[in-house]
Here is the input.
Amino acid sequence: MALELYNPFDELIFDESFCFLTGKLSLESVSVFPEWLLDHFKIGDDPFEMMEKEKIFRYRDLRLPCTSEVKNAFDQLDEKFREAYQKGYEGIAALEEELIFQWSAKIVYGIMHHEFQHEKKRMARRGEEFQISKDLKERFGLFHLMLQSVIKPVKFKGRKPWSLVVFPLKYSADIFSYRDDMINLLFTMGVDQFGFIIHMQDNGAIAEREQELLEKMKGYVLHPVQYEELYAKFHYSDYLLQYRPKYNIEFTDNQVIIESVPMSADQNRPLFGFWDQKVYAQLLANYWEVYGIRQEDIIRHQRPMLSFLQDPYSHDFIDPEKIDLPF
Here is the structure.
């Protein structure tokens, strides 16, 4: 008999009585954002705004119901990440990619859990049934399956399901920069000494698209404005990706093996759609708002598009030390 694993998206279960990862009776809970991280940056009591703007949590109130087994597993995972965090970029870069995925995926799933739980309750008050599309059920169910690798024999074979880039980053010591896109399974985190960006379900396609730029980055400690630009590239590339990732999944008696299928285009359409500079500039302006950089500053009349990553003429990587903007 093949190994059977829990999938909350079959019945859209986001109840506090059941473990988010196993579906068993919940006796414990685990913080969505690690408590040591909240304490370090003193953001535990800061507001966390949900997609529905009227609902606001505190960071420390975001918790996931779980069994003691799941709590222990994530506590051990988090301790490994914390030890690497304390070593800065070198520590994080030395971590196995799967561990970074698991650590980040718990945060993304935790936000998803609270978003869906809130929406389910809101619709119930209106006498309506909460539903999500078949495609999202499939995507999120697969994401949940991958996250179960923390406690179950879920193995990744060959090509990984994600794009992940880790890089040195110079930031003010008190800044915690974080963004997520739970629908498209994107996550990024930037602090002093390091940053990383992960797309959790693109089979490496976006990292391959940006491979030339990522090679040019090596040896540099990025400025925050460069970090934001890099994430904007990942985010917009995800929007342009025209194919769904595919997987060969083998269920055996004692394990699940997930093998990512390389993405390839057919003759009718390319892997990525047309890159619209105006749309990209609008997205990038949102990330650069803190610097007072607007869309009209990015697309400039009769001048190359503004970039802090590459020189528009030579295409060389721009030395972060030459960027005259605050950290």
Notes: The chain has ten helices and eleven strands. The chain has two domains: 7-152, 158-327.
